[in-house]
Amino acid sequence: MRFISEHQVREVLRFPELMGAMRDALRALSAGRVQQPVRGIIPVAEHNGWFGIMPAVYGDVMGAKLVTFYPANTRLPTHQATIQLFRASTGEPLATMDGRVITEMRTAAVSAVALDLLVARTPLVLAIVGSGVQARSHLEAFRLIRDFKEVRVWSRTRSNAETFAAKAGAEVFESVETAVRGADVVVTLTSAAEPFLRAEWLKPERVVVAVGSVGAARRELFDDVMGSPVIVESRESAVREAGELIHSGAQVYAEIGELLNGVKPVPPRPAVYKSLGIAVEDIAAARLVYDSILEDRVAE
């Protein structure tokens, strides 16, 4: 059994291949070819965190991600994880690998897959709410599928927003409202527990990518934003873990895989993609990493 470090994962994982793997995994999920329970979460209340367990069986591999979320972390990443990968046909352990970079990149890759379905191929205005790891990852993935004539950033900590904007070629805005007004795509990447994004600030034909808040009690979007068609990775996960859906009473229009498979037509804008992150994405990404490293070693 191999151990694959964060450094090794980052060396071999690339967004074009990862987006292809995410499309395949989401198609398989919506077609009923994946075994995947909703993640189990154990609160670690005394330290303001939680510990999640995310298993899945997908094709010839299976495994589980063990992930922690500590939103108060300042010197460490808020999300940390390891992934255990097995061969499905024999139960043989294949690898233990760092899951932090996989979580970072597969989240952005799936958002890019959703965005590729939902927005036109014209130069767009992008507003990013947040300035951390996911902001960097999402912008990198988004730029592979669309051109942006303007990138706007707002973050609770202005110095962080300025650092991110300087590297990203973006402009820092003074408030969420001013950042999102007139934007074609709004992506929210915060640890907010209470909603902050209002529909009255948004242009009529927009796509909102809501990533940051996971859990029945947490949400970034006010109920009025949820009046648009809502796209998710997994209905089963969304109805239990998406605070925006639970509080607003909004219904899921389609899974990404249903759109990719042609089971449902792509909805017109406005639309909302609510990201939660699901186990099959981690297992598919882990398989991609494992195969890449194995191929490199054979080539040597």
Return the CATH class of the largest domain.
Alpha Beta
Structural class: alpha/beta
Count of beta strands: 15
| Number of structurally distinct domains | 2
**Residue fraction in strands:** 25-35%
User: How big is the Rg?
Assistant: 18 Å
Helix content class: 25-40%
Q: What order do the SSEs take from the amino end to the carboxyl end, as H and E?
A: EHHEEEEEEHEHEHEHEEEHHEHEH
Morphology: globular
The biggest sheet, with number of strands, parallel, antiparallel or mixed sense and barrel status, is:
8 strands, parallel
What is the fourth-level CATH superfamily of the largest domain? NAD(P)-binding Rossmann-like Domain
Instruction: List the total number of helices.
Output: 10
CATH architecture of the largest domain: 3-Layer(aba) Sandwich
What are the low-pLDDT stretches, counting only 5+ consecutive residues below 50? none
Q: What's the CATH topology name of the largest domain? A: Rossmann fold
Average pLDDT metric: 95
Termini, distance in Å?
A: 19 Å
Strand order of the largest sheet: 10-9-8-11-12-15-13-14
Describe the structure in your own words.
With 300 residues, the protein is of the alpha/beta class. It folds into 2 domains: 2-103 and 280-299, 2-Layer Sandwich (ornithine cyclodeaminase, domain 1); 108-278, Rossmann fold (3-Layer(aba) Sandwich), CATH 3.40.50.720. 37% of the residues lie in helices and 26% in strands. The strands form 2 sheets. Strands 10-9-8-11-12-15-13-14 form an 8-stranded parallel β-sheet, with helices on both faces. Strands 1, 2, 3, 4, 5, 6 and 7 form a 7-stranded mixed β-sheet that branches. It is globular, with a radius of gyration of 18 Å.
